[in-house]
Structures are given as C-alpha cells and as structure tokens.
Amino acid sequence: MLRFLTAGESHGEALIGIVEGMPAGVPVAAADINRHLARRWLGFGRGGRSKFERDRVHIYSGIRFGHTIASPIAMRLDNAAYLKDRSGWPEVMAIEGTGEQVEKITLPRPGHADLVGVQKYGFDDIRPVIDRASARETAMRVACCSIARQLLNQFGIEIGSHVLRIGEVGVDLDSDWAGERDRLLADGAEALFGKADESEARMLDADLTAQCIEHIRATRKAGDSLGGIYEVVVTGLPAGLGSYAQWDRRLTGLLAQAVMSIQAQKAVEIGDGVRAAGLPGSKVHDPICDDAGTFRRRTNRAGGVEGGISTGMPIIVRGYMKPIPTLIKPLETVDMVSRESQPTRYERSDVTSVPAASTVAEATVAFALANALLEKFGGDSLDEMRPRVTP
To answer: What is the pTM of this model?
Structure first.
C-alpha cells in the first residue's frame, strides 16, 4: 500500500515529504517531478508568490541510480518566500524563541480555516493555521504523487486535465462540447494536458481562454475572486480496480476523496454524475458490447467506474472549486479578542487558481489509482508487477 506524508509551513524554510510503499525498480527522476511542479504555477490570475517561487525538488533517499529501491522516499522543497518575503513571516514562524514580541493576527477571514483552526487547536494567533492550511502544501503533495504517477506510466496509464469553467466563462456541461477532448484522448490523456497547458486558462477553446482572461482582469479590478470547474481524465486504466465488497474500497469514493482533499474544493462528480440525476436511466447507463472478444461500453457516461470498480473506459472526474476567500475588497469579520466587527485584512492571494487546482487534482487522482493498482496486482518490484498487469 502506498502512503505519503507532508510537513512544513507556507512561510517556513521548506516543505518535506515522505512516500512509502513504492515497488522497487520504478524509474524516477527529479526532472519529471519538477515538470509537474512547474505546471502547478500555470494560469492567468495568480498572485505575487508565483513571481518568485520556483519549485525544485531535492530527493534525499529511496532512489538509487534513477530507480526506486522500495525504501521510503524523502524529499524537500525549499520555500523561496522564506528568504524573499519582506513581510516578516519567517521571523514570526521561527522554530525557536518565545514569540513574545510577535504581533498576533486575530481577524479570521471568512471562507478560510482561520477561525475553525483556532477553535480546534486553542491558538490565540491565527498564523499557525494560515501557514499550514495554505495551498502551498499542495506543492509537496504534487511531488509525492508524481512518483505514483511514474508507476502508472510504466503500464501505459496516463492522466490529464483541463479547465471547463472559471467564474461565468466556460462550457455548458449539458451541451455537446467533449469532441475536442475525446480527439486528444485518442493519443492518451497526456495529450490532453499538453494542449491545456498551452492556454493561460488551461482551456481547450481559444475563444473561451480570451474571455476568461478578461473576466479575471475585471474581477481583480473589482477586488473579488473566482472559482470554477475542471476535469481530470485517465486513460489506459485496466478494468477491475476498486471493489464493491466494502465501502472504503469503492473506487468512486477514493477518487472523490482525492479531489475533495485539495484546499478550496467543494464538490466532485464522476462521469455525468450531476447531470445524470435529472435524466431517465435509458439516457444514463452505458450499453455493453463485445468488441473482438473484449467487453466494452458504447458510451462512457459512468466516467469509467461502475459498482465502485473501474470498467476499462477512461476515468472522468470533475472538481468544483470555490472562489478564493482572500479578497482585496474586504468582507466583514470579528476580532477574536475585542469581539468587534471589522473588515478582514488582506493577505497576498490569487484572483483564481482553478488552472493550478486542475494540475494538483491530476496528482491526487494518480496516487489513488496507483494504490488501487497495487491492491489488485501487488508486487514488491516493477518486474514482478509487469506480467500481472499486462500478461
């Protein structure tokens, strides 16, 4: 079984990650991980940190001569903000000292973990919550999950994503828009993310991209923020991953958790999940056919999963991200000490990070699927797994 842990704060010296359970012999290079870390910064509407944060992973253990050795993989990502941020955060998040001279932040921001974090852990300063709850954590998550992605790639399993909507601009999910996506998927899901990465909005349609940029500019000028919808697609996945036998082994639940674990994600659907709720069964379920001795579905409205088990069709998962709650134009809050109503303080933030969230979702979905692959086919090494997955 694969698992990973991340540690570190947004304005601390570094993020740390440990990946355990990888079979021996899987090719892993820092350059492959860095490629996906760079994609995490894609998208028009990013905030100030994107101008100086350039993530480069340092691998400490678990890799020998470019291949996994079945021992824990330890990694580090330095935070450029630790050295370049002039707001004093490195000092106020210092490992040592008493903190007696540090000014406390006591204005919780609506929509953030600020208030609930303080209520849960008993802090009198919001800074510890802000720093760990930050989406900066997803950088190390992408690094950890990119190793699992390398395992999937050994069996021809590819993962890609694209953005469907940012704020008011995007495709109508009830319309026939998926032709360009399906054309790209014929070459594998990485062709999908390659095309999406060419767009500043990670959209497949150039006109929608241009509209999104103008929408983001107008929203920034208004001091507001935007959410949106993205789609993660997986190709090459064999049938039989997951199980209906227990609730916590259903692939649908594992995929949903993978997406919903990402900061600011508020909803998820698999296949035509939301739309299917309002349609008759005859327009929802996928007819089965025999294609030269192989069972296939004529359509893929189920999104590649039936009964909690993969069907062999492309996995389709959509994530719904809320607007970023840090706003230039402040909302109302209450000071935790004085209990007086005040406007929120502004922390540097993006107008939207839906394009970035889509790349993070690729990573978390990869980890869930790599675990499901190992559960079904097992193996302590890549050589042991190969004949089981592709006999």
So the answer is: 0.94
